[in-house]
């Protein structure tokens, strides 16, 4: 029994480094992989965000459950791109300012997350007027960051 415990504890110590979160850079084998990953996440986020546009413009009937489902995907996908902007992954459609003015880039992410939290809450109410207001704030967050950090 004692020996088994010792073997187990040695095994746990040996496995510990593998359980530590990998650094952002180590998540991708090549910089191109990071670019592809962040662009893919942004594309999926944008697709689901865009599906809500005709609803808030009154061009499509308001299906509260559908909007809630799309907003949930936007919220989830919005967490993913940022770890793929690590050092050495310059390029894609990103301006050099992402790296040279990284604190401001991070502020843009925080603004987005704050506005998406409000959109999630608005979608939960089932009230189109609230969804419309919150949607507009998120769209402004997208645009503000793109103006500074994304190539046209
Ligand atoms: C904190 C900054 C920031 C915010 C906020 C942001 N984006 Fe972007 N977005 C970028 C950058 C930088 C790129 C360029 C990424 C690249 O090509 O490497 C980009 C690229 C994209 C792309 C192109 C992806 C591709 O395939 O090339 C889409 C679509 C997009 N964003 C949609 C959105 C939408 C929709 C929102 C808001 C819901 C949003 N973004 C919010 C910074 C941001």
UniProtKB/TrEMBL annotation:
Ligand binding (heme c): 142, 145-146
GO MF entry, a single one: iron ion binding
Protein name stated in the entry: Cytochrome c556
Keyword Metal-binding assigned: yes
Short name of one Pfam family: Cytochrom_C_2
Signal peptide segment: 1-26
Highest taxon above the source species: Bacteria
Post-translational modification: Binds 1 heme group per subunit.
UniProt entry tagged with the keyword Heme: yes
GO biological process: electron transport chain
Xref: SUPFAM superfamilies: Cytochromes
Alphabetic keyword roster: Electron transport, Heme, Iron, Metal-binding, Signal, Transport
Example of a GO cellular component annotation carried by this entry: periplasmic space
């Amino acid at each position: 029994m004692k020996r088994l415990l010792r073997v187990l504890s040695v095994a746990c110590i040996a496995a510990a480094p593998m359980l530590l979160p990998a650094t952002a850079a180590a998540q991708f084998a090549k910089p191109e992989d990071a670019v592809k990953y962040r662009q893919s996440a942004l594309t999926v986020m944008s697709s689901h965000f865009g599906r809500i546009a005709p609803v808030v413009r009154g061009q499509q009937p308001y299906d509260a459950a559908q909007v809630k489902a799309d907003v949930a995907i936007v919220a989830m996908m919005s967490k993913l791109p940022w770890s793929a902007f690590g050092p050495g992954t310059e390029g894609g459609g990103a301006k050099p300012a992402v790296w040279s003015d990284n604190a401001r880039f991070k502020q843009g992410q925080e603004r987005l997350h704050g506005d998406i939290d409000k959109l999630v809450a608005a979608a939960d109410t089932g009230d189109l007027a609230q969804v419309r207001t919150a949607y507009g704030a998120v769209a402004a967050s997208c645009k503000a960051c793109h103006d500074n950090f994304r190539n046209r």
